[in-house]
């Protein structure tokens, strides 16, 4: 059983996925962490992030391992844990460039499809390109201002700067971020985090919640 939760930046995907996954007793898979880790490695190696062959060769030489736990995902390169370094403003600024490289997308997709189900998968294209046959699909939205206000709790920049960066990233990520035609779209703006989680749980087919 796979449940997909896609959506725009800072719409609540990972927090909501964690809550849904815990309620179902399964792990969740944060696909964005693989793009973020690929970006961090590229920045550290001073690669041109537009250079797909260089970024891919570097990834192949420095394999990443995603640990999809119900309580939070961790990501490793060899013995080094990268998780805590992936939500910096520097990685935020570069990740859309790396995520636009088809070679990197294919590499990430292969990592994700190798994971053993059941799980909740979150990102941009989980319900479209990666797991089109998922048992249930959701897509989270919220206005840029609300998303920026939420992110401001986690970043040093002020709300207008965060909002401008989110809108820029929405635009750069637009190609892979279209909702699946069979996804339930949820505006998280007027809801609490638990309200979003309960909305999703209430819409899951009975065989998923009893599995
Ligand atoms: N109604 C809500 N729905 C989802 N997230 C919310 C809500 N209210 C506040 N948040 C907060 O918004 C922040 C961004 O959520 P996050 O899960 O990191 O989003 P994403 O994975 O889409 O970037 C988190 O701190 C989360 O707790
Ligand atoms: N399945 C995915 C997941 C993330 N991405 C890209 C798009 C985003 O700009 C980056 C980071 O994704 P992540 O979900 O960690 O970012 P946000 O938490 O939404 O800010 O990776 C993608 O293209 N496809």
Low-confidence stretches: none
Tell me the span between the first and last alpha carbons. Answer: 9 Å
What overall form do the CA principal axes indicate? globular
Major sheet: size, sense and barrel closure? Answer: 5 strands, parallel
| Rg result | 16 Å
Question: What does this molecule look like?
Answer:
ATP binds at residues 7-15. This is Cytidylate kinase. One of its GO terms (molecular function) is ATP binding. It comes from Deinococcus radiopugnans ATCC 19172. It catalyses: CMP + ATP = CDP + ADP; dCMP + ATP = dCDP + ADP. This protein is α/β, with parallel strands linked by helices and 211 residues long. It has one domain: Rossmann fold, CATH 3.40.50.300. The chain contains ten helices and eight strands. The strands form two sheets. The chain has a five-stranded parallel sheet with strand order 2-6-1-7-8. The chain has a three-stranded antiparallel sheet with strand order 3-4-5, with helices on one face. A hairpin with a 2-residue loop joins strand 4 and strand 5. Helix 2 (31-44) packs across helix 4 and helix 2 (31-44) crosses helix 5. The radius of gyration is 16 Å and the shape is globular. 40% of the residues are buried. The mean pLDDT is 95. The protein binds adenosine-5'-diphosphate (ADP) and deoxycytidine diphosphate. Deoxycytidine diphosphate (YYY) binds next to helix 2 and helix 4.
List keywords for this structure.
alpha/beta, Rossmann fold, three-stranded antiparallel beta sheet, globular, binds deoxycytidine diphosphate, P-loop_NTPase, nucleotide-binding, kinase
């Amino acid at each position: 059983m796979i449940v997909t939760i896609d959506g725009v930046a800072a719409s609540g995907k990972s927090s909501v996925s964690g809550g849904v996954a815990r309620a179902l007793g399964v792990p969740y898979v944060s696909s964005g962490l693989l793009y973020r880790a690929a970006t961090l490695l590229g920045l550290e190696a001073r690669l041109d992030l537009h250079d797909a062959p260089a970024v891919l060769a570097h990834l192949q030489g420095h394999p990443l391992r995603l640990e999809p736990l119900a309580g939070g995902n961790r990501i490793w390169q060899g013995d080094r844990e990268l998780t805590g370094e992936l939500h910096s403003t520097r990685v935020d600024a570069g990740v859309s460039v790396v995520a636009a490289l088809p070679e990197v997308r294919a590499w990430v997709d292969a990592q994700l499809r190798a994971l053993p189900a059941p799980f909740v998968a979150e990102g941009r294209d989980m319900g479209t390109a990666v797991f089109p046959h998922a048992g249930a699909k959701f897509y989270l939205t919220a206005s840029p201002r609300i998303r920026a206000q939420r992110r401001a709790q986690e970043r040093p920049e002020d709300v207008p700067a965060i909002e401008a960066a989110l809108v820029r990233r929405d635009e750069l990520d637009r190609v892979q971020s279209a909702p699946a035609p069979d996804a339930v779209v949820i505006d998280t703006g007027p809801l609490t985090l638990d309200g979003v989680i309960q909305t999703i749980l209430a819409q899951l087919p009975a065989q998923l919640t009893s599995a």
